Amino acid sequence: MKIVDILHASMIIPDVAATDKEGLLREFAHFMCSRSEGIGCTGEAAERALLGRERLGSTGVGENVAIPHAKIAGLKNIVACFGRSAGGVPFDAVDQQPVRLVFVLLVPENSAGAHLKALARVARLLKSASFRDRLQSLPDAASLFEAFVEEDAKY
């Protein structure tokens, strides 16, 4: 699975406004549901799903990265969104560092294989310190999306 199969240019938030974990998940849920046709759920439902998954354990994987994800009833395809927080957001990450790079996945209820492949792909790309640094330095949504396209092509 390639990131470009699930991430679209319209699903980039270059400057996340939220300053706490719940606000961050709310911002992403509403952004994604307002921008993705046929997502089949409201921002509130996506927010509840993301918060529910987060209660099972933090998706803050360290190195200023979080990969929140949740299963959504009725969703037909994986919906992805990337966002960046210049100031960082406290997220209960494994290394206790604030989250600056956030990649959210909303996945169909019955997509265990695709869900895991998407998570693995995102984790692999964001594991690269040079790629994370590049994402921090880019000026806008278009350049952030292009960076994902270029990085994705390497693997």
In words, what does this structure look like?
This protein is 43% helix and 21% strand. The protein has 155 residues and is α/β, with parallel strands linked by helices. It has a single domain, classed as Mannitol-specific EII, Chain A (3-Layer(aba) Sandwich). The radius of gyration is 14 Å and the shape is globular. The chain starts with 11 loop residues before the first strand and ends with a helix. The mean pLDDT is 94.
List the helices and strands and how they pair.
Blueprint lengths: L11 E2 L7 H15 L7 H14 L3 E3 L2 E2 L2 E4 L6 E11 L9 E10 L3 H15 L2 H9 L3 H13 L2
Parallel strand pairs: 1-5, 3-6, 4-6
Antiparallel strand pairs: 2-3, 5-6
Which terms summarize this structure?
single chain; Mannitol-specific EII, Chain A; 43% helix; 6-stranded mixed sheet; alpha/beta; 6 strands; 155 residues; globular
Give a concise summary.
The chain has 155 residues and is an alpha/beta fold. The chain has 5 helices and 6 strands, in the order E-H-H-E-E-E-E-E-H-H-H. Strand 2 (60-62) and strand 3 form a beta hairpin.
